[in-house]
Amino acid sequence: xxxxxxxxxxxxxxxxxxxxxxxxxxxxxxxxxxxxxxxxxxxxxxxxxxxxxxxxxxxxxxxxxxxxxxxxxxxxxxxxxxxxxxxxxxxxxxxxxxxxxxxxxxxxxxxxxxxxxxxxxxxxxxxxxxxxxxxxxxxxxxxxxxxxxxxxxxxxxxxxxxxxxxxxxxxxxxxxxxxxxxxxxxxxxxxx
Length: 192
Fold this sequence. Notes:
With 192 residues, the chain is α/β, with parallel strands linked by helices.
């Protein structure tokens, strides 16, 4: 069986959240990182890691390894993925951002199926758009990812397409709470 680890991207500077640490923000009384952790715990992941650059002790209380970026100045989610791949000796890494509080139950198996038939990585898409931050990556992609970061590249979607990744489509609306207004709207509308 393929060994898969998980990684929750918990944010960097929190610029779109007014400087607040996104993963620790509450939705209906529960931190976004805890919602993401609960989602990942339903799948056969060997280990779940947290990518975080601030409030490391708060994240560590969740009992998961906490991985700060290895590069300075908050270079974005690619740097979090780099840290996750380096810390994992699994064959694949499932990556989700903390600001997507609901994931389809079929996500893990559908992304794995894409890699099983030869994709180098696969990301989620719905009827409206791609979600490059929700992806499954073959560990063999690490050297190329590091080279792109060394060259100053920060775009997750550009990297995914450049290495021959593919989108896996879901009949599911991915809620992305990437700013304070979206979080406030979801707080009013949320149904667990």
